[in-house]
Amino acid sequence: MVTKIMGKVLLSLYYILLIHLPSSNIPGGKIFSLLRGYIVSKAIKSAGSNISINKGVVLSQDLELGSNVKINENVRIRKGVIIGSNVEIAPGVTILTSNHKIDRLDIPINAQGVTEVRTVNIEDNTWIGTNAIILPGVTIGKGSVVGAGGVVTKTFSANSIIAGSPAKLIKERGC
């Protein structure tokens, strides 16, 4: 088990060097994605095996990953996210766990702070399409697919195919 301090050191190494290494879609680039995945798996809260992380991924140390997870280019993952096994996250996805407070009119929005972290849970065998946005407190059920550009504002059950802004159930897999 890696200590929290060692995790911060490894995450620093990731941001200083590894985040910039070539993408997996160039010849020989897969080794860089696996190297990033290995280092990140040692730096975060918990991780299974066979993690692949592509170039430009920004993530938090407070992240849980299952096994056989592939995170593609330029994905943003905030703290408090749980991602199951056999999950594929396409390029440009953003997963948020808090928002800006906006209630008060007498204080500028940028001075109001942020809301409490609300965990996002992406269950096993899920595919998140390119440029999707997952908002705080959402659970995406096992075996689900989020269409490209979908904005997920609420929880969906297992085997859902969802798309749109806000995301809506298109159909269920296997039906």
Explain what this protein looks like in three dimensions.
With 175 residues, the chain is of the alpha/beta class. The protein has one domain: UDP N-Acetylglucosamine Acyltransferase, domain 1. The chain is built from 2 helices and 16 strands. The strands form 3 sheets. Strands 2-4-7-10-13-15-16 form a 7-stranded mixed sheet. It has a 5-stranded parallel sheet with strand order 1-3-6-9-12, with helices on one face. The chain is globular and about 45 Å long. The mean pLDDT is 95.
Strand content: 15-25%
Q: Helices and strands, in N-to-C order?
A: HHEEEEEEEEEEEEEEEE
Strand order of the largest sheet: 2-4-7-10-13-15-16
Structure classification = alpha/beta
What integer value in Å does the Rg equal? 17 Å
How many domain regions? Answer: 1
Number of helices: 2
Which parts are unreliable, with pLDDT below 50 for 5 consecutive residues or more? Answer: none
Number of strands: 16
Any idea of the CATH class?
Answer: Mainly Beta
Largest sheet: 7 strands, mixed
CATH superfamily: Hexapeptide repeat proteins
Gap between N and C termini: 43 Å
CATH-defined fold name: UDP N-Acetylglucosamine Acyltransferase, domain 1
Q: Roughly what percent helix? A: 10-25%
Secondary-structure map:
Layout lengths: L3 H13 L13 H14 L2 E2 L4 E2 L9 E3 L4 E2 L4 E2 L3 E3 L4 E2 L4 E2 L24 E3 L4 E2 L4 E2 L4 E2 L4 E2 L4 E2 L7 E5 L2 E6 L3
Parallel strand pairs: 1-3, 2-4, 3-6, 4-7, 5-8, 6-9, 7-10, 8-11, 9-12, 10-13, 11-14, 13-15
Antiparallel strand pairs: 15-16
Helix pairs in contact: 1-2
